[in-house]
Design the sequence.
């Protein structure tokens, strides 16, 4: 395949986050569009194996994210591959990889995975945003983020929103989780699930307030699928509340879609999101959903497909969860509507839009 169809993705890790998952969903579909995707990364993770299985070309980088040698290593890779486009994912690569693409004269696309205003106090994000204004294009995964960049980019920089996509056939084929995947919670009680990073952006303290109340007021269990800086605090609180065996926080769960298929409800009380992968996956597998009332959640679902609650209101969230568990019929009606909506969230459609953008940038350059 010619270098004109080659796209190099630069990402810090292939670990647990939504950006990493989207990239591993996207690359096989880019290949189906006639492109040759390559992925360079600093550290592997759960999303590396699926890329290898799909025969996507991968390039482990030896330098650390703090080393000046990283720029040289990326430059050597770009010169060797001669890609038509470089796309960067997450701040480290937006800064180092983006600058090197510009120095070497290769069209550069920066990926916006959240809402830039949510990180207003971060020095790293300030530097990253100063670099991104020199990109050839910025692709956001939400309309809100695209609107933010529209107000901050020079006129020469292209920008657009390409929503996250899902491998719908793959998710449809996943069987519901068996008891062995429920981390000692038994499986006979309704299961409330959270999927995501354990950090402040996901509003974990409020989420735990809700889960503690729910499992004390009715026979239900809760499972937090995800890792992050608050994992030790989460486990300590579960022990302090005496709820080991009723609430579990095992860390990263590879079989999260199977767990969602088994669950009575997904709960997400995020303070901000880009485009919420876990919420989309829950909708795609038919799991009822209770969400914080933030624009990113409203961009995906509405009052016909989910229950929305004020972000910091633990009482309102607990009430919504308990109501859904005690009267599941309306929750399943909403879940069926969300499942029908999810049929439009194909990763193949997202890949086609990326392919069009790559070819437009390559032809323009």
Sequence:
């Amino acid at each position: 395949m010619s270098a004109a169809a080659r796209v190099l993705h630069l990402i810090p890790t292939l670990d647990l986050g939504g950006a990493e998952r989207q990239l591993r969903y996207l690359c096989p579909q880019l290949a189906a569009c006639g492109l040759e995707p390559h992925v360079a990364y600093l550290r592997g993770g759960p999303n590396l194996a699926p890329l290898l299985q799909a025969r996507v070309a991968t390039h482990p980088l030896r330098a650390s994210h703090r080393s000046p040698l990283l720029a040289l290593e990326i430059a050597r890779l770009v010169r060797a591959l001669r890609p038509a486009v470089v796309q960067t994912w997450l701040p480290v690569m937006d800064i180092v990889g983006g600058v090197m693409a510009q120095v070497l004269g290769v069209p550069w696309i920066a990926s916006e995975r959240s809402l830039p205003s949510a990180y207003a106090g971060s020095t790293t994000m300030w530097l990253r945003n100063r670099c991104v204004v020199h990109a050839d294009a910025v692709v956001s995964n939400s309309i809100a983020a695209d609107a933010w960049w529209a107000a901050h980019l020079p006129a020469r920089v292209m920008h657009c929103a390409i929503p996250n996509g899902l491998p719908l056939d793959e998710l449809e084929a996943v069987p519901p989780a068996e008891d062995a995947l429920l981390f000692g919670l038994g499986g006979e009680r309704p299961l409330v699930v959270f999927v995501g990073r354990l950090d402040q952006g996901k509003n974990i303290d409020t989420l735990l307030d809700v889960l503690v109340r729910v499992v004390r007021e009715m026979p239900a269990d809760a499972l937090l699928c995800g890792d992050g800086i608050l994992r030790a605090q989460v486990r300590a609180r579960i022990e302090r509340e005496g709820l080991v065996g009723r609430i579990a926080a095992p860390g990263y769960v590879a079989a999260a879609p199977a767990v969602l298929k088994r669950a009575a409800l997904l709960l997400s009380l995020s303070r901000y999101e880009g485009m919420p992968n876990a919420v989309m996956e829950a909708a795609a597998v038919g799991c009822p959903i209770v969400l914080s009332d933030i624009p990113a959640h409203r961009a995906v679902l509405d009052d016909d497909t989910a229950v929305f609650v004020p972000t910091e209101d633990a009482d309102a969230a607990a009430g919504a969860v308990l109501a859904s568990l005690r009267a599941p019929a309306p929750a399943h009606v909403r879940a069926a509507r969300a499942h029908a909506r999810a049929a439009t969230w194909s990763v193949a459609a997202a890949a086609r839009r990326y392919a069009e953008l790559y070819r437009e940038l390559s032809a323009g350059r």
User: Anything to note?
Assistant: The two ends are 20 Å apart (CA to CA).
